[in-house]
Amino acid sequence: MSKVKYEEKNRIGIITIDSPPVNSLDREVFDQLESVVTQIGANVNVIIIEGAGTKAFVAGADIKEFPGLAPEAGEALCTRGQSIFNLLAELKQPVIAAIDGFTLGGGLELALACDIRIATARSQFGLPEVKLGIIPGYGGTQRLPRLIGIGKAMQLIFTGDFISAEKAYQIGLVEEVTETDALSKALEIANSISSRGPIAVKAAKEAVMKGMQVSLKEGLSLEAKLFGDLCTTEDKEEGVAAFFEKREPVFTGN
């Protein structure tokens, strides 16, 4: 049985990690996740990733793979995980993590590779690798400080402590805490995004993600170029016409 399931509903792709009991990231999960991500088509507007069940979103790497791990194998393990999370982060479509339950170690690193994180109130977060005598290896030391700031990230990484969903919201680790189930809220957001101009949304993601890696001057130049590129699209003409005609636009992705 597949440990990573994928389905599409109304141009929204849903990836489900189903690796009982806590959806750990073993080699099989990584292989299947890579296969799913690389096959997502341009017709999909938004991606949601969730963990099966209510115990954990993803509770980390498969620690059974760690005993006796040689330096070369340890480095290869990390670069493998990083490369797959990079594939997810570099998708043109927005990616939403629908989080319910424990989100620890590699699970938090997976969530960090997403663009938006929605969590249930009972969810818990942490990077506990130092308790095992190692460090986060799937991007946690790099993505977390970029998201919440260096000081808060260092506190979480150095202590390995868990934090609540409310605390995660307060420090900017998650965008919203929901009292309903995370998937329903994620679908609500995904449907809203999907109703917008799909080319424009992808361009907006490119502007933000690439702009964060360059100077402000270079980022502004990229923003202007992407805006100019959108001026040639049918969606731009439809969006402007719909505004003046006081109706909902019908975007075609062209």
Automatic annotation (TrEMBL):
SUPFAM superfamilies: ClpP/crotonase
Keywords, sorted A to Z: Lyase
Family: Belongs to the enoyl-CoA hydratase/isomerase family.
Name this polypeptide is given: Enoyl-CoA hydratase/isomerase family protein
Organism per entry: Cytobacillus citreus
